[in-house]
Amino acid sequence: MPALTSFHDVRFPTEIAFGSAGGPERLTEVVTLGSGHEERNSRWADSRRRYNAGYGIRSVDDLHAVIAFFEERRGRLYGFRWRDRIDCSSAAPSDAVTPTDQVIGVGDGATTTFQLVKTYGALHAPYQRTIAKPVSATVRIAVDAAEVDEGDDWTCDLTTGIVTFAPESAPAVDAAVTAGFAFDVPVRFDTDRLDINLTSFAAGDIPAIPLVEIRL
Q1: What are phi and psi of 77, to 5 degrees?
Q2: Distance CA 56, CA 136 (A)
Q3: pTM for the full model?
Q4: Hey, what's the torsion of the CAs at 54, 59, 64, 69, to 10 degrees?
Q5: String of DSSP letters for 17-73
Q6: Digits of tens for pLDDT over the chain (216 positions)?
Q7: In sequence order, what are the residues at sequence separation of 6 or more whose Cβ sits closer than 8 angstroms to the Cβ of residue 145?
Q8: How far apart are CA 97 and CA 88, in angstroms?
Q9: Which residues, at least 6 apart from 56, have a Cβ–Cβ distance to it below 8 Å?
Q10: What is the number of other CB atoms lying within 10 angstroms of the CB of residue 196?
Q11: Residue 135: closest CA among 161, 99, 105
């Protein structure tokens, strides 16, 4: 697990990230038996996202910005925030965030801390993803569908995604605690080298800039 000091709370240039490619990956072992049947086992409890930021490069100025960002992160050494335009909100991409988007817990009258999560799917095997990097000023919280005030009733740690209620505001027994938020993905460069050929780039050859999600 990376130390907190190995993460820089800064976002990769958004205009370049919007032109990138990538998404979630999983690690599944598949064994084919002599009968032709399969046995499948998931090695990871959580998915991990990979991206190629090179597809977002449109100019030499973009390359210069990425080089500066890469150097400040010391290659693979420091993590940073990444905006995944397809999946960066508690709601669907075309919908506004609301405080009832995601269920993050159920009150018991005493518990005051709840982790932001996003649930994918509903019927067969829904997957609950921990959200550790919410975006400032986007988090909204509701208890039993009634929005509660930030500051007086609760606060959110933007470095962990943990919502903490004031002791006197602890959600009541069986009260649904829900949240809406925008979020970033914690990632790092998956290379210590940027191999940039300006001649090829001018002809349309876009350099590879691999990124991989880190688990904090």
Answers
A1: -70, -45
A2: 25
A3: 0.91
A4: -40
A5: HTT-EEEEE--EEEEE-TTS-EEEEES-SS-EEEEEGGGG--SHHHHHHHHHHHHHH
A6: 444 469 999 999 999 998 899 999 999 999 999 999 999 999 999 999 999 999 888 888 888 899 999 999 999 999 999 999 999 999 999 999 999 999 999 999 999 999 999 999 998 999 999 999 999 999 999 999 999 999 999 999 999 999 999 999 999 999 999 999 999 999 999 999 998 877 766 655 567 899 999 987
A7: 100, 176, 178
A8: 11
A9: 15, 16, 17, 18, 19, 20, 62
A10: 17
A11: 161
- Report whether 128 contacts 174 (CB < 8 A): no
Running DSSP on this structure, what letter comes out for residue 74?
T
**Within a 10 A sphere around the Cβ of 177, how many other Cβ atoms?**
21
Question: Would you state the structure tokens that stand for residue 159, as one six-digit string?
Answer: 């470095």
